[in-house]
Amino acid sequence: MKVVKFGGSSLSDASQLKKVLDIVKSDDTRQIIVVSAPGKRNKDDIKVTDALIKYYRNYINHQETTENQKWIIERYKNIIDDLKLPQTLLEEIKLNIANLSSLPIEQNDYLYDSFLSEGENSNAKIIAEFFKRNGLDASYVHPKEAGLIVSSEPSNARILPSSYDKIENLATRDEILVIPGFFGVTKDDQICTFSRGGSDITGAILAAGIKAESYENFTDVDGIFAAHPGIIKNPESISELTYREMRELAYAGFSVLHDEALIPAYRGKIPLVIKNTNNPSHPGTRIVLERENNQSPVVGISGDKGFVSINISKYLMNREIGFGKKLLQILEDLNISWEHMPTGIDDLSIVLRERELTPIKEQEIITRLTRELEVDTVSIEHHLSIIMIVGENMKNHIGVTAKATQSLSNHNINLSMISQGSSEVSVLFVIKTQEEKKAIKALYQTFFNKH
Ligand code: ASP
Q1: Cα 144 to the chain's mean position, in Å?
Q2: What spacing in Å lies between the alpha carbon of 223 and ligand 1's midpoint?
Q3: Span 51-73, pLDDT tens digits
Q4: Is 11 in the pocket of ligand 1 (CB under 6 A)?
Q5: What pTM was estimated for this model as a whole?
Q6: Burial code of 114-137, b = ≥16 C-beta within 10 A, e = fewer?
Q7: Is the CB of 223 under 6 A from ligand 1?
Q8: What domains, with CATH codes, occur in the chain?
Q9: What are the pLDDT digits (tens) for 159-174?
Q10: How far is the CA of 7 from the centre of ligand 1 (A)?
């Protein structure tokens, strides 16, 4: 049995839904279907979820919501009419969308989540009906009925471990189950969503819960590319990746999938396959626990901007017991999360995301480091990027880092820092953001020999 999730762009209109029907029909193990809300039909369009946010905002500010409701209902009406589905279904959806504006505003922590969930909920009903009328034995299943009981954290729900027992029962059902993604219900019966993009999480939880043969995640690209297609023209698509490699790539800029979605699938040892609704015969990218080490050492190159480095030096730092602890205590006191800490003998840098700092926090760090730790120098460097070369197989190859640094130096790119964890899944370089694209191109040319 496979769990299959379709993203918003795969469900944006009737023609996309016909592709989805064909995909589900072509493999009778595709039995649990998780759906997003309708996404954009073109680049200027609005996702239904975003339209629901506008509707919510107007409602809580006591502004007119008729236009908001009309726009959302029209989206579903177009789909229902184009697929020749019954008007009673449209009436039901109309009512549900309109009823959102009679929910209590005061003392209702779940109001926002109730609005947003209606995007996937209505879509799941339409898709189940469409499947039924086209020869599939399909049923719509509400997340509550599916057993998706979540923590009481509005817009940031987490699945309760006890849910898995009930979810497992879904495996005993024979028909195709169409389940809205993105939300569950709390123990007190409140609708509570995962974070944005969270339909991926629903799919991963269900796949782990029923111990699916695989979790197929259908989107609008041919899987995961070896480098960002906005930087490298027609990059190679990766056929197989391990979860660890995916995690490393996702860390620095690869965002095909919600990163939290990897957790249940990883723990449940479920292979995850990223596929393209618009090109379903393409094998896509398979993400597995382990893979044969017969691939090239580097599977992907990622890059992300928005990093800052706090550079500290102090003569004889290496002999001072507790220096690191005191330094990290300062960051903890300021509620700052850090990412990397490359060190020298008498110097040390802390690399963190720019969003963790404010001018006031920066000043506080400098003051406390100077006063409490008596450092010789401290400076904060902005506009940095992280570039990562990723591949589990690097550990079996000598000279990968040498090749990468040679390539960067040939292109005149200065490396501020290099870091490699002991597992050797990735090598990380810190460079100036203005050189990020150039660096990714240089490394792609070196390891994939393309451009
Ligand atoms: N519709 C939700 C969002 O746009 C969830 C999802 O599509 O995964 O965030």
Answers
A1: 24
A2: 19
A3: 999 999 999 999 999 999 999 99
A4: no
A5: 0.88
A6: bbbbbbbbbbbbbbbbbbbeeebe
A7: no
A8: 2-220 (3.40.1160.10), 300-448 (3.30.2130.10)
A9: 999 999 999 999 999 9
A10: 8
